[in-house]
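Lay summary. Proteins are chains of building blocks that fold into shapes, and those shapes determine what they do. In this project we predict the shape from the chain. Here is one chain we studied, written as its sequence of building blocks.
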Amino acid sequence: AIFVPVRVGPQHHVRSMPHIVAPSLLSADFANLQAAVELVDRSVAPWLHLDVMDGVFVPNISFGLPVIKAIRPHTKKVFDVHLMIEEPQKYVQDFRDAGTDRLTVHMEACTHLHRTVQSIKKAGMKAGVALNPHTPVRTLEDIIADIDLVCLMSVNPGFGGQSFIQNTYNKITALQELIAARGAGCLIEIDGGVGANNAADLVRHGADVLVAGNSVFNTPDPLTAIAALSGGQDN
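And here is the predicted shape, written in a compact code that computers can read:
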């Protein structure tokens, strides 16, 4: 296992576990999703990342509740569902019923974010909040202590295969400082452009969860790719 030494101070949070790799089904073969899900189930990755897009909040449409419900019996992995949709509060219980374990909504899509976070927790799920690349970390000040995860978008959401935005490293540092200042305990997740070229740097900077799409499913051996991104750890 890779345990990254993290300096303890106001700008750093203490890593208490190895980082998590969450393969993103958005990059899998949609004609054979069951095989992709079963592959992830055999891997060392503890989570499966599911991007739900509505064509309104982001310029793409992916998959929704029926697909999540259909693939749920084929894996015991944690379903890390990322809603890139308008009015996510309307569907909280539906996603829980479909088998979601962790539900992340976008700061930019929620007029009443605190209410939405509380409804996610009431439904029995872990609650996450995602930030688009242009949204400052400071917008989380009044909600950070109430959530379980912050997803920093390191590409502009909507499509897989985009180039990683380098300013994400600065946002990780700012987020660590906010987490420490508020005594929060949420995980830092990075979504977009994550691969073998930057995974170690992201973990070193303080990322807890790495969402990996093309760097897993567009390789000759996805299982080996997942293991490499995990640092060879056993989960």
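What the prediction tells us: Residues 60 and 159 are 7 Å apart (CA to CA).
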